């Protein structure tokens, strides 16, 4: 595959050099003295394009105004374009920045960009949905309060009307009490008063109780009145006889009037008690009830209780509550406080997240610093990143080969692990493979953390959607609320009751439609474009991690194009350095093998699968498909293959790959046993011989 790509590249370069040589020379060749102004214009145009691309990469996570964005982008594009015209360093560094976006610094920037996406996406969405939950709670609280208050008002309206009109009603009650007092006053005068026209005064004696005193006093009063009436009748009788006698004397002559008028002088008849004795006649025992005193005392007490101090009555009422009034808040005020508190914390959270987002966006500076560092080290340190077997390296080796001098190609396997042959540039070295696995694992943890935020946001959105669909409630209520108290009668108490109870009469029609639609949650859902953008960025990062070694090799290619003389020096230095190390290659291989002997022995002792295979080679032949049951080369640590060489010493059993065995010689480094590839090329044949 690598040979085919190399062949295609060579053909493309030859085609361009033949068919498009003028354009190639103007734009790409570093040694063209002609077409100066054309090269300047083309360089400026390319610089402007590169500057625009750099600005797009920088502004991925910044929110500038349109004027600021245009001003900054034009400034950067113009500066980079001018730099492309006059300096090679600006060209090299600009392209290194673009190549660095595919390297570790660029991946760090893209990972920071993904984290910024997570902040502006699910994290902000979680905060927004949290605010929606708070709004739903506040709205539900207000709705419940309003419904409860409506029902309570309907139930307590009669009592409220009674309390609000009680002062006006009390004036009417006082008038009723005055009427009651007007009715009761004659009774009190009759029972407790004295007769002014009588010379007989009632003797009040101390008795045990008010009722007995009233009963006794009123009995004596009735008896006294009765006797007074008898005396008044006797006096009227005498007056009648006297008046009749005088009239008779005036109308008749003297002789006749003596005979006729004498009966009118018989007034002693008035003293005769024809009905009986006065004490017997005036006895009130039968006329006055026995419980008259008790009834009068109760009536008098009731009148004093109802009417006493009625002119100073003040009606006051208040609602007692165990909670102080200043600590009470209505539902709307509570909801507003809850929303204000949440909004304050949300504002603080947004500020922190925005600052974090901007700090992560500034990580693009790390890419620029990495490009400047590589540019400086490339020009200053000849050993820096000088591990590539380039085309010029092959030409130098071919030239030495034609001159019959010592060459370094093909490379030994022991040397290949530290060098990169650009003809097989699509292959990873062992160190690069380990780095790729480490970065993939590290990035997988970041993806897992981001997935947790996305999953949490999805769960909350789903829960709010379920609540919105399943919790919708609406109902219509129609009817009449009628309370009517009817008090029959025309007496004082009937009027008092009607006056008191008329405020409890209510006739209200109920026709309401209620729903909790405004209190249902409206979750914020992340758009599909956000998921596509996030997944695309993650996919780009994964590709960059897996192919990072290929993209990072572009840095050397960029620097070699702009500093081709420096690249030739680096290639010659690398070639000479390999020649010098080739002289001590055997010693280096033996040193590496000696340091790996202990590791190999420990692996054979503690690797159970490998022990099973060593002990029962025929039965456990199938274990060879497992990487853990294979031997490793003592020098390069490659796993066992079909050409693997095993030491025939049963106490050693150290393995070598074919290339390392060929470079090392015929002696086992661990036990100094002579190795013969013909005898022990097959692992199972070796154990049969032993």
UniProtKB/TrEMBL annotation:
Encoding gene (name): DCST1
A Pfam family: zf-RING_DCST1_C
Keywords: Membrane, Transmembrane, Transmembrane helix
Domain of life: Eukaryota
Signal sequence annotation: none
GO cellular component, one term: membrane
Protein name per UniProt: DC-STAMP domain-containing protein 1
InterPro entries: CSR-E3_Ligase_Protein, DC_STAMP-like, DCST1_C
Membrane topology: Multi-pass membrane protein
Domain Dendritic cell-specific transmembrane protein-like residue range list: 384-575
Major subcellular site: membrane
Membrane-spanning intervals of the chain: 37-58, 70-97, 355-374, 530-546
Annotated ranges, domain E3 ubiquitin-protein ligase DCST1-like C-terminal: 632-673
Subcellular location: Membrane
């Amino acid at each position: 595959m690598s040979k085919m790509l190399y062949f295609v590249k060579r053909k493309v370069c030859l085609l361009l050099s033949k068919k498009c040589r003028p354009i190639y020379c103007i734009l790409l060749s570093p040694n063209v003295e002609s077409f100066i102004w054309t090269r300047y214009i083309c360089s400026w145009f390319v610089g402007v394009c590169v500057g625009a691309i750099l600005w797009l990469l920088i502004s991925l996570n910044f929110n500038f105004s349109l004027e600021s964005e245009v001003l900054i982008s034009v400034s950067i594009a113009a500066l980079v374009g001018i730099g492309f015209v006059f300096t090679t360093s600006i060209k090299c560094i600009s392209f290194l920045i673009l190549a660095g976006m595919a390297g570790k610094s660029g991946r760090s920037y893209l990972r920071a960009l993904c984290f910024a996406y997570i902040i502006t996406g699910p994290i902000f969405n979680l905060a927004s949905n949290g605010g929606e939950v708070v709004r739903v709670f506040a709205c539900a609280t207000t709705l419940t309060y309003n419904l409860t208050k409506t029902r309570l008002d309907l139930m307590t309206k009669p009592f409220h009307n009674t309390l609000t009109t009680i002062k006006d009603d009390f004036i009417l009650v006082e008038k009723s009490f005055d009427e009651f007092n007007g009715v009761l006053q004659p009774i009190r005068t009759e029972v407790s008063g004295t007769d002014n026209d009588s010379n007989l005064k009632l003797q009040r004696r101390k008795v045990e109780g008010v009722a007995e005193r009233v009963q006794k006093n009123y009995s004596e009063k009735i008896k006294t009145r009765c006797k007074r009436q008898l005396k008044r009748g006797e006096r009227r009788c005498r007056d009648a006889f006297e008046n009749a006698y005088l009239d008779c004397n005036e109308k008749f002559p003297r002789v006749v009037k003596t005979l006729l008028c004498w009966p009118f002088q018989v007034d002693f008849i008035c003293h005769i008690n024809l009905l009986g004795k006065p004490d017997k006649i005036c006895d009130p025992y039968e006329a006055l009830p026995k419980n008259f005193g008790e009834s009068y005392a109760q009536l008098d007490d009731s009148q004093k209780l109802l009417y006493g101090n009625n002119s100073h009555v003040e009606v006051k009422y208040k609602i007692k509550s165990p909670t102080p009034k200043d600590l009470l808040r209505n539902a709307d005020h509570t909801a507003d406080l809850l929303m204000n508190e949440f909004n304050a914390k949300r504002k603080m959270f947004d500020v922190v997240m925005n600052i974090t987002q901007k700090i992560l966006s500034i990580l693009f500076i790390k890419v620029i610093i990495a490009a400047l560092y590589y540019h400086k080290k490339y020009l200053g340190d000849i050993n820096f990143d000088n591990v590539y077997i380039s085309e010029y390296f092959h030409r130098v080796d071919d030239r030495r080969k034609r001159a019959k001098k010592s060459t370094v190609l093909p490379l030994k396997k022991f040397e290949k692990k530290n060098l990169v042959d650009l003809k097989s540039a699509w292959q990873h070295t062992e160190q690069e493979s380990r780095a790729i696995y480490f970065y993939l694992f590290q990035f997988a943890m970041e993806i897992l953390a981001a997935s947790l935020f996305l999953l949490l946001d999805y769960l909350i959105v789903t829960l709010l959607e379920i609540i919105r669909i399943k919790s919708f409630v609406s109902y219509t209520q129609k009817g009449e609320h009628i309370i009517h108290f009817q008090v029959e009668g025309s007496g004082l108490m009937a009027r008092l009751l009607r006056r008191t109870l008329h405020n409890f009469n209510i006739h209200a029609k109920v026709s309401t439609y209620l729903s909790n639609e405004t209190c249902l949650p409206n979750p914020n859902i992340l758009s599909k474009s956000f998921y596509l953008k996030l997944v695309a960025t993650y996919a780009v990062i994964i590709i960059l991690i897996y192919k990072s070694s290929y993209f990072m090799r572009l840095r050397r290619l960029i620097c070699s194009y702009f500093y081709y003389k420096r690249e030739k020096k680096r290639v010659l230095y690398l070639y000479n350095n390999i020649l010098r190390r080739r002289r001590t290659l055997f010693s280096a291989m033996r040193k590496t093998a000696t340091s790996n002997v202990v590791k190999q022995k420990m692996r054979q002792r503690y690797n159970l699968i490998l022990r099973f295979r060593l002990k029962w080679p025929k039965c456990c032949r199938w274990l060879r498909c497992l990487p853990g049951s294979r031997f490793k080369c003592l020098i390069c640590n490659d796993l066992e293959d079909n050409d693997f060489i095993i030491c025939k010493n049963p106490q050693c059993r150290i393995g070598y790959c074919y290339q390392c065995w060929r470079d090392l010689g015929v002696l086992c480094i661990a036990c100094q046993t002579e190795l013969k590839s013909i005898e022990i090329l097959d692992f199972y044949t070796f154990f049969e011989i032993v």
